[in-house]
Amino acid sequence: MGTVVQLKNQINDSYFQLKNSVEDKLVLTEEKIKSKLASDVELVQKMTNYHSETGGKRLRALLTLGAAKLCGYTKGSRDVNLAACVELIHSATLMHDDVIDQGVVRRGKKTLNKIWDNHSSVLIGDYLLSRCFEMMVEDGNLEVLKLLSSTSSKIAQGEVLQLQHKGEVDMLEETYLKIISAKTAELFAAATKVGAILSDADTKEKNALEFYGRNLGLTFQIADDTLDYNSDLKLFGKKVGQDFFEGKITLPIILLFQKINFNENKLLIELFKKDTRNSDDFKKIITIIKKYNIIEECYQKARHYINLASNSLVVFKDSKEKEILKSLTSFSLGRNF
Question: Which of 68, 201, 216, 260 suits 328 as a labelling partner, its CA being 20 to 30 A distant?
Answer without folding.
Answer: 201
